Amino acid sequence: MSYELPDSGFEDCIFCKIVSGDAEASWESRPTGDSRVVCFHNRLKWARVMLLIIPATHMSQTELWESDVLADAARLTVEMGDKHCGDEGYRAISNFGLQAHQSQPHGHIHVVSGISRQIQSARRIYRISDVDSVNVDEFEVEDSPFAAGISPAEPTTQREMWQSGQILDASRAALDTSKQHSPNGFRLMSSFEPSGLGNLAGENQASLFLLGGGQLGLYV
Known about the structure:
It comes from Candidatus Lucifugimonas marina. By secondary structure, this protein is of the alpha+beta class.
């Protein structure tokens, strides 16, 4: 795909060096013998909390979001979001290609404190498709030339989608949608909104947003 970054492999990958112990990181979930995903703090300080969840073995963004490793990454995303961002909510974000400001070829999910105002103000336009277990709707989203929301056909919460196999159905539908509507790069994002009732964030309706169609702004 044209959005994939040049990848020289694990020998030159900073994330692989962090996993192997050849580069330093501030860990939240260290690699163990059987862990498929790990978590450490992003060195960027654009938001109060910025974490990176990555596969322990080298793979691209597309490979991560197409594989069942995503299920482990998604569960760890919710665990870390609960730990660090429960009162204010958080976003789970992956960038694909330079148009979406992807900088590392090793697949990863950003966990960023605070909710997405873009998604909060999104306006549904029409249904693109309703194949199998997911619905794909086009939305009008500020600062995004194209936007689609992918959601389970049976309504559920953000937490439940990300903690179950439903995230895999949503991710594969999102990647299929990107091929037609944003082949040169895009962003995948879910917003976990605080309930205001003392519950953990993410009781809002499940949705995985695809933002693309051209150059995007930064993700915070």
